[in-house]
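re: the backbone from monday

yeah here it is again, tokenized this time
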């Protein structure tokens, strides 16, 4: 592994930690915590989809097909570390099939202070916070409170060619390996930017409305 690639991975790990913390903190502010790990991974996935709308860079990472929802295996390791360090708090644990545990997470004693510090001092973190604020308000008000199974409406995860527990790499977001959600989001958002002064906020709500209607038969 080249030193440049290793440095990039370290940087991405730090960004993911910040994203996870900001996601949980914004969920806490809105009053929807604790959120399950499935809801957290889906929210991270959707934030990556809509990142450019808020002038936020997407974060590279592996995505695992875990049942009907996307799962970031490397990010989960960082989530566990944040919970054990008191940044996040495991408020309860549900036990599912095949011995899988589903922790429900809230903000820990160290988390709120860290969140306030990074969003106050770092403009990038403040933009990420606004992205998650709009996204959480929109998607928990619709589908995500009841159903995190967005996989069936995604081009990659909905394909029978992608097997359970198979990892799909999105690190380069190439034409051969991109998800259908990004194409739909870009189609909607490029048109919104020319029509509305609040294209970022309206775009998130419109996109979540699209997901909500697409998932309606499964609810």
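seq for it, each position gets an aa:
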């Amino acid at each position: 592994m080249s030193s440049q690639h290793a440095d990039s991975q370290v940087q991405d790990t730090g960004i993911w930690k910040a994203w996870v913390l900001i996601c949980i903190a914004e969920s806490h502010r809105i009053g929807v915590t604790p959120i399950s790990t499935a809801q957290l991974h889906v929210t991270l996935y959707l934030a990556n989809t809509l990142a450019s709308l808020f002038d936020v860079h997407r974060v590279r990472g592996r995505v695992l097909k875990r049942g009907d929802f996307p799962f970031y295996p490397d990010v989960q390791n960082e989530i566990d570390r944040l919970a054990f360090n008191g940044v996040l708090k495991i408020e309860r644990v549900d036990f599912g099939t095949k011995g899988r545990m589903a922790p429900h997470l809230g903000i820990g004693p160290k988390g709120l202070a860290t969140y306030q510090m990074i969003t106050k001092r770092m403009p990038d973190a403040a933009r990420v916070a606004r992205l998650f604020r709009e996204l959480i308000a929109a998607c928990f008000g619709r589908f995500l409170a009841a159903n995190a199974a967005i996989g069936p409406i995604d081009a990659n995860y909905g394909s029978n060619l992608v097997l359970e527990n198979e990892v799909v790499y999105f690190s380069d977001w190439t034409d051969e390996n991109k998800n259908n959600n990004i194409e739909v989001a870009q189609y909607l958002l490029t048109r919104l930017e020319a029509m509305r002064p609040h294209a970022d906020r309206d775009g998130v709500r419109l996109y979540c409305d699209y997901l909500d209607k697409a998932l309606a038969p499964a609810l």
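DSSP finds seven helices and six strands in the chain. Residues 88 and 118 are 16 Å apart (CA to CA).
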